[in-house]
Design brief:
The protein has about 300 residues and is mostly helical. About 70% of the residues lie in helices and about 0% in strands. It folds into two domains: about 140 residues, Up-down Bundle (Four Helix Bundle (Hemerythrin (Met), subunit A)), CATH 1.20.120; about 110 residues, Helix Hairpins, CATH 1.10.287.70. The chain starts with a helix and ends with a helix. Keywords: Ion channel, Ion transport, Membrane, Potassium, Potassium channel, Potassium transport, Transmembrane, Transmembrane helix, Transport, Voltage-gated channel. This is Ion transporter. It is a multi-pass membrane protein.
Length: about 300
């Protein structure tokens, strides 16, 4: 009993050791310190190594002893990532914010596959999810400019989502109609592979996207002519979503350039920002910006 009491006291002391938490936090979450930068570099190296191990294990031309070594290394790396994940939770005052954040979910998904492999065969190949953890390299080497550009792209995709959804629905109706017409043209031919409407719709999708697997091909002259028309239509359709997103990105970029701080005269502020991120001065908002912000709020709601 005394041993259990002492063990419990040590556990409680460990959970409330603020000095240890601050030390772990400076190593795990901060890359400005030498130890923090070294930890992040070791972490990224381990991520790359674990991905290479999964790739090598799938190539099935090594002797059995080599696969044993690969699997042991995989277990050791998983143990390291598990300890790292728990350390991140341990040193935070509000751990649930990290657990349900993007990086927290990715860190958890990158750790689980090896444990799932004990119950589900082949699930450890999902370790390639760890590639998403390489995003931390932006934080280590101070490449925040690229993160800003990525946010601009994501924001443009989000704003363009309604237009792209309508366009996708139109394309869905189009391929369904063209597949049905192709079934009417080719379905009666004895050597035709258009023996039902779902196969014909599948062919229309493959043809319109210019993929062209060649597993289903028309045999009649009218069917070949119609397939050529679908191919030409596909070339014009593919460019539409790209144009929508590109136009939105240009508008977003111009909006960022217009948002110049009246005090320090620096630009590059987010459309929804109220204060300058460099000097803290309040930003002026144009009427068009206010309207765009209202539209985004309506779309998000």
């Amino acid at each position: 009993m005394n041993y259990l009491v002492k063990l419990r006291q040590r556990w409680v002391s460990f959970l409330h050791n603020e000095a240890l938490k601050e030390k772990i936090y400076s190593i795990v979450f901060e890359s400005d310190t030498p130890k923090g930068k070294l930890f992040d570099i070791v972490l990224i190296g381990s991520i790359i190594l674990s991905i290479l191990l999964v790739i090598l294990e799938s190539m099935h031309f090594f002797p059995y002893s080599a696969y044993v070594v690969l699997r042991v290394l995989e277990y050791l790396l998983t143990l390291f990532f598990t300890v790292e994940y728990l350390a991140r939770i341990y040193c935070l005052k509000q751990p649930f914010k990290y657990i349900f954040s993007f990086f927290g979910i990715v860190d958890l998904l990158a750790t689980l596959p090896v444990y799932l492999s004990f119950f589900l065969h082949g699930s450890h190949y999902l370790l390639v999810i760890r590639a998403f953890r390489l995003i931390r390299i932006f934080r280590i080497f101070k490449l925040f400019k690229f993160i800003h550009e990525g946010n601009l792209l994501l924001r443009s995709l989000w704003i363009s989502a309604p237009k792209i959804s309508i366009f996708f629905f139109f394309v869905l109706i189009l391929v369904t109609s063209m597949g049905t017409i192709m079934y009417m043209i080719e379905g009666t031919h004895p050597d035709s592979e258009f023996n039902n409407i779902p196969n014909s719709i599948y062919w229309a999708i493959v043809t319109m996207t210019t993929v062209g697997y060649g597993d289903i091909t028309p045999v009649t002259p009218i069917g070949r002519f119609f397939s050529a028309v679908i191919m030409l239509i596909g070339y014009t359709i593919i460019a539409v979503p790209t144009g929508i997103v590109s136009a939105t990105m240009v508008r977003q970029h111009k909006a960022l350039e217009k948002r110049r701080c009246p005090r320090c005269h620096r630009d590059g502020h987010e459309p929804e920002s109220l204060y300058c991120k460099y000097c803290g001065a309040r930003l002026r908002r144009e009427k068009t910006e206010v309207k765009e912000a209202d539209v985004r709020k309506e779309q998000e709601s």
